[in-house]
From TrEMBL:
Gene that produces this protein: Cntnap2_1
Protein name: CNTP2 protein
Residues passing through the membrane, by range: none
Start and end residues of each Laminin G domain: 1-164
Secretion signal span: none
Pfam families, sorted: Laminin_G_2
SUPFAM superfamilies given in the database record: Concanavalin A-like lectins/glucanases
Amino acid sequence: MKTLKDVISLKFKTSESEGVIFHGEGQQGDYITLELKKAKLVLNLNLGSNQLGSIFGHTSVTTGSLLDDHHWHSIIIERHGRNINLTLDRHMQHFRTNGEFDYLDLDYEITFGGMPFSGKPSSNSRKNFKGCMESINYNGNNITDLAKRKKLEPSNVGNLSFYCVEPHTVPVFFNATSYLEVPGRPSQDLFSVSFLFRTWNPSGLLLFSNFADDLGNVEIDINEGKVSVHINVTQMKKNRIDISS
């Protein structure tokens, strides 16, 4: 496929922070890859480079954050030559690709949800997408509908389910005044706690607990965007331990 214009759109939701959403590459060195990296959306595009190295076509654009929140996000990529509009959840970013070429020259297949191992460096250490996609449209072709009706030829549809599995985790939302109090475990030598959290606030108390028999307390908080752990032990000479990250 050699195209001057491309329109690619889809919706996705995932709880994973890494994964290839779609990928295509060509014998001339052209490629297009849309993937999640550290819960951000990254578009890598190359309309061609020359062997002399004077034309370097690789272009990379990053947009969004916290996209692994298991909510639906919409993506639209509109390309006309070197001009690209990348829209994520109605927020549009315009840019021009590097190099001097206008056509995207790809091989016969484009993969959604991952990329085949080609032996090239681009295919190493990239995770496949894990989550849900819907309304996949590639240059006017409704890919989701064609895949469901098995009308994509040739195609390799591996272990797809045409429904969206919901996660088993149950989140808890705290406002500025709410808290959750649970019973402690006295007569235990070990104090252990783990949780996932997400917030837009730079500061706040995450956890507090007194030790039994007035032996001290432990506190976990966010202070100016950093997580801090404070442990106060009343029976030690160095009675306060502070760790921040």
